[in-house]
Amino acid sequence: MPERTGHFESPEVEAHAARLGMWTFLASELLLFAGLFTLYSASRAHDPAGFHAGIVHSARIIGSTNTAILLTSSLTMALAVHELRESRRSACVRLVLATAGLGVIFLCLKGLEYALHLTHGIAPGGGRPSAYEGASTLFWSLYFVMTGIHAIHVLVGVGLLMWSAQRVRRGRIQPESSHRLHVVAMYWHLVDVIWIFLWPLFYLA
Amino acid sequence: MKGSSARPLVVTGGALLGLAAVSFALSYVGLGAASLPVALAIAASKALLVLAVFMELKDEPASAKWAVFTAILLISILVLFAVLDVATRTPPPLAVPPSGP
Predict the structure, then answer these.
(1) What are A132-185's pLDDT values in tens digits?
(2) Identity of the residue in A72, A77, A196 whose CB atom sits nearest the CB atom of B46
(3) B contacts of A67 (beta carbons < 8 Å)
(4) What is the per-residue DSSP string for A108-139?
(5) CB contact, 8 Å: B45 with chain A?
(6) Can you tell me the distance from the alpha carbon of A29 to that of A46, in angstroms, rounded to the nearest whole number?
(7) How far apart (Å, rounded) are the C-alpha atoms in residues A192 and A97?
(8) Contact B54 A77 (CB under 8 A)
């Protein structure tokens, strides 16, 4: 039987409270990124050429591959919630683990990307000036900070996904309490949404 | 929502990957000054798809929709005014002051 906290009068009320609470939490999470996006926008308005030069030297193929990986992981996570609601728990667990696996691949590629930049003398707030080739040092500092904080969110998300897969497998999350998986999925999708904006700002345009 | 189809989710996933492919291809075309607005417009479309379908915002009550809308509106105002300040103020607020003797 799924556990339910006593002060909720029905599973529907509990599910609504959980989802509204998660929306509020995600809105507050956005505050963190809002400050960084504002700093990026103001800095780019101040030095558009320096930021364009930075984008030219970014790892576009790795970043774009990571975009495809995160978008696919959002799909597998949405399908996992769907499968749970259809009472197909084993399919749900497989999809949640696939989502976590895609998150791990994302992190590995991100690590490779950082290693390539550091090898070429590009580092946050410093590095070898000739490696920047006209790019703003602030561009690279923001790149490392913003993608780094995002990567930490991915890492937390992978942990939540592994934990949720275990809970579904052990029957702690049932189709009737699918909102418990859905709120984790909402967090994962927000991580995807943030990357959707980081990708063009640091790799494309 | 037992008995519902997974088809809308798969279609949305396909649309997201398609939009990402368009964004990637346009980055090699070179749209000049329009490249950033176009890339951000595509990104906003993708984000709306994720919010509405994967995060199920379209099925949420008005209270949740207002919470999300307000967050996006306030962040947009924050970014807009910061950019306007930097773009219009003289001397530029982010200018590095000359080092003293």
Answers:
(1) 677 788 899 999 999 999 999 999 999 999 999 999 999 999 999 999 999 999
(2) A196
(3) 20, 24
(4) HHHHHHHHHHHHTTEETTEE-HHHHTT--HHH
(5) no
(6) 27
(7) 17
(8) yes
- The CB-side HSE value for B57 (13 A sphere, CA atoms) comes to 21
Flag if A196 and B24 touch (Cβ within 8 Å). Answer: no
Which parts of A44-199 are beta strand (E)? 122-123, 126-127
> Which one, of B19, B32, B21, lies nearest residue A52 by Cα?
B32
C-alpha A78/C-alpha A83 separation (Å) is 9
Q: Which residue of A has its CA nearest to B92?
A: A46
User: Long-range contacts of range B21-26, CB-CB < 8 Å, 24 or more positions apart?
Assistant: B23/A199, B23/A200, B23/A204, B24/A64, B24/A67, B24/A204, B26/A204
Interval A26-41: pLDDT, tens: 988 888 999 999 999 9
Smallest CA–CA distance, residue B32 to chain A, in Å, is: 9
Three-state DSSP class for B5?
coil
Q: What's the length of chain B?
A: 101
Which of A23, A28, A44 to mutate to probe the B interface, most B CBs <10 Å?
A: A23
Chain segment A92-124, per-residue pLDDT in tens: 999 999 999 999 999 999 999 999 999 988 888
Give the pLDDT band (50/70/90) at residue A7: confident
pLDDT of res. B96: 60
B15 to chain A, any CB pair closer than 8 A? The answer is no
pTM for the predicted model, two decimal places: 0.91
Whether the Cβ atoms of residue A184 and residue A19 lie closer than 8 Å to each other: no
Please give the distance of CA A67 from its chain centroid, rounded to a whole number: 10
Indicate the residue of A19, A30, A200 with minimum beta-carbon distance to B60.
A19
